[in-house]
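ugh ok fine here u go
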Amino acid sequence: MTVLVAYATHSGATRTLAETITETLTAAGVPAELVDVDQSPDPTGYDAVVLGSGVRIDAAEKPATAWAKSHREVLSSKPMAFFTCSGSAADPAKGGKQKAADSFVEMLGFSPVAVKNFPGWVIMDKIPVHERLLLKSMRTPTGDFRDLDAVRAWAQEIAPLLQKG
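structure:
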């Protein structure tokens, strides 16, 4: 059994979460391979898929959405988990909900075995200038909000779900 851990990121935070998930699954005896969706990985040869996406202005990254759409049939035939990474996920007012994740799952047309929204970072130097202006105008808190222990815990939680297939 091998799990594809695919991700799309614009600032790098989602990659660190995907790396943590890959390492945790592998340590739990579930071999996993990390691949950026920009490399167009073929999910056919994997037993399960974990897909992660950064969030940009309440939407999943376009490369993640395009990749999932192009492989929808294959993804729906095997266990798949989905996670997002965004600075806004750290907002307690959201209660762990993320509009981007809800819209993405609706677009998929099937329910993944697990969906999780993780806080990422809002580091202005890593964000395109036009987005910085928007975030500043919205008074978005800046900083690194990632919780890798929570990411590891989720990876351990989903390991048995990914093995059901």
